[in-house]
Design brief:
221 residues, four-stranded antiparallel beta sheet, three-stranded antiparallel beta sheet, 6 helices, 7 strands
Length: 221
């Protein structure tokens, strides 16, 4: 006789494990998460046309990507280190200001007041202030030296040509790829290259992601 038993429903433990695995695949919309392709065919084919474009960066793009990346670094700094970066300057600032307040007018009072101000300005909460003060002159200095940059991106790596010459890096030299609100940021051992979204169409963005995924997971992505 044929059996009449009904299929057993999945155990609660199995369902819970599936939910946990699904949640682990989610990622923030502001981060480029890079996974190794399961079948090795996620990267563009070797004969895919190179991505070519020229860009003249804007201050808004530069400051947006800079702020986002500094925020990323701060969020990923160990908690103990973040606490030291906050409490030590804060305590020194309070001590310096109190000492200056108790001293009579003079060079000693001015010195402690200056130390107190510098300590306060080194706190993480003043990051946006420093970006607003320092980033614009640095950007315009770079803009004067490199008004326009020409890029070529293919399966071998990325090349940038400007008035200062050529800068070339292979994909195995890219240590991190971040996706922020205004564009991508490719980080190397020293420095990085921002690539605004406006320079790439949808196909080129997918091609860039393929190049990165094809070389394996990026450190810190």
């Amino acid at each position: 006789m044929f059996g009449t038993g009904h299929p057993q429903p999945p155990y609660r433990k199995e369902v819970a494990m599936q939910i946990v695995q699904q949640e682990q695949k989610t990622f923030a919309s502001t981060e480029l998460t890079i996974d190794s392709p399961p079948s090795g065919d996620a990267a563009p084919p070797p004969d895919a046309p190179a991505i070519r474009f020229s860009v003249s960066y804007t201050l808004a793009e530069y400051m947006s990507i800079l702020r986002a990346h500094l925020g990323f670094i701060m969020r990923h700094t160990p908690k103990a280190k973040r606490l030291r970066q906050t409490w030590i300057p804060l305590e020194f600032s309070v001590f310096a200001f109190l000492t200056a307040w108790m001293l009579d007018p003079g060079w000693a009072r001015n010195t402690f007041a200056a130390f107190g101000a510098l300590s306060f300005l080194s706190l993480p909460i003043t990051l946006d202030l420093w970006v607003a003060l320092i980033a614009p002159p640095v950007f315009f200095l770079k803009k004067r030296r490199m008004p326009v940059c020409e890029f070529r991106i293919d399966g071998e790596g990325i090349a940038r040509t400007s008035r200062l010459g050529s800068f070339e890096r292979r994909w195995n030299e890219v240590q991190m790829v971040r996706r922020y609100e205004r564009g991508y940021l490719l980080m190397f051992a020293t420095g990085g290259i921002p690539i605004p979204f406006r320079c790439l169409d949808q196909r080129q963005q997918e091609q860039l992601r393929g190049y990165t995924a094809g070389r394996g997971p990026a450190n810190g992505a």
